[in-house]
Amino acid sequence: MQKGKESLGLTESLDSGLGLVMFDALLAHFAGHEHVPDLDPTLIKAMRLEFESSEFFGQDMRHLWIMLESIVTKSMRDPGRNEDRMNLLNLACGYCEEGAVLSAFWGRSGKKVHQFAIDLRDAEVDKAKRRYALTEKIFRKAILPNVRELSTSAQSVEFIADDAIHLAGYGQIPSQFNVIFIRHQNLWHDRSTWQRIYDFALSRLTDDGILIITSYFDREHYLALELLKMLGGNVLVSERNHLSRELSYPGKSIDRHVAAISRSK
Ligand SMILES: C[S@@+](CC[C@H](N)C(=O)[O-])C[C@H]1O[C@@H](n2cnc3c(N)ncnc32)[C@H](O)[C@@H]1O
């Protein structure tokens, strides 16, 4: 791994340095942590290019990583610190481009992460599975010759197509989560649905758990925080994400705001 870092210039720029940190964490995630192979630098470079090949994907994922680091540090929380496994829930995940990166982020210190990702729409969940499989393929291709057996528990994301609150009815799904992530809520379109989703999320957090939400718009974020407070959430930190990528609709940008919320005691 060290060889790869040197040849790619770890300190060249913050973004490229961060890309390597994230890339290493992804590699460890897909290798099941215990068997991270020492890959040839040329191969690492080719994998990074492949990972970054679709428009904005690599950049958005690096910025998501920075956003998570910032919000988690400022929240002063370390969810799951006394456990050897993290339960992570991505609610209303859509096509979930962040699936692999979320698992890699929460598993960056070597912890196993079991992620569940749910969305109402079958088509989005299908796309999410394909997106994850594509990322996995890039890493597996390189890792497999060096690793006899990949740990399934460390690498998997379980994608479910259903109403978020029906999760309660799935016996094999944990009753509580260390981290719940809701990216780009849609409060404006259907407040009552999002009230149910937020209520469900708060009720499913462990004592030291955090709910992380992001929003596309300023006002929508403010309304989401008000609603969460009304439901008993404690807003630990909320910030404007300055790495947010502007979209063509006025005032809308990717992960424009982010907040970490805990359950009130
Ligand atoms: C604005 S999209 C965000 C999707 C994704 N998180 C993202 O960042 O691209 C909101 C998502 O909420 C999902 N959704 C709406 N109501 C839901 C429910 N009751 N249960 C699960 N997902 C729901 C929609 O299908 C949609 O994919």
Description:
With 265 residues, the chain is an alpha/beta fold. It has one domain: Rossmann fold (3-Layer(aba) Sandwich), CATH 3.40.50.150. It contains nine helices and seven strands; from the N terminus they run ααααβαβααββαβαββ. β4, α8 and β5 form a beta-alpha-beta unit. α1 crosses α3 (41-51). It is globular, with a radius of gyration of 18 Å. The termini are far apart.
Keywords:
single chain, 265 residues, alpha/beta, Rossmann fold, 7 strands, 43% helix, globular, disordered N terminus, binds S-adenosylmethionine
Distinct small molecules: S-adenosylmethionine
**For the residues shown, what is the average pLDDT?**
86
**Contiguous uncertain segments of 5+ residues:** 1-12, 150-155
Q: Kindly state the number of beta strands.
A: 7
The biggest beta sheet, please?
Answer: 7 strands, mixed
β-strand amount:
15-25%
Enumerate the strands of the largest sheet in spatial order, edge to edge or round the barrel. 3-2-1-4-5-7-6
Per CATH, the class reads Alpha Beta
> Helical element count?
9
Annotated CATH topology: Rossmann fold
Overall structural domain count:
1
Shape: globular
Order of helices and strands: HHHHEHEHHEEHEHEE
Radius of gyration: 18 Å
Q: Given the helix and strand composition, which structural class is it?
A: alpha/beta
Helix content: 40-55%
Name given to the CATH homologous superfamily: Vaccinia Virus protein VP39
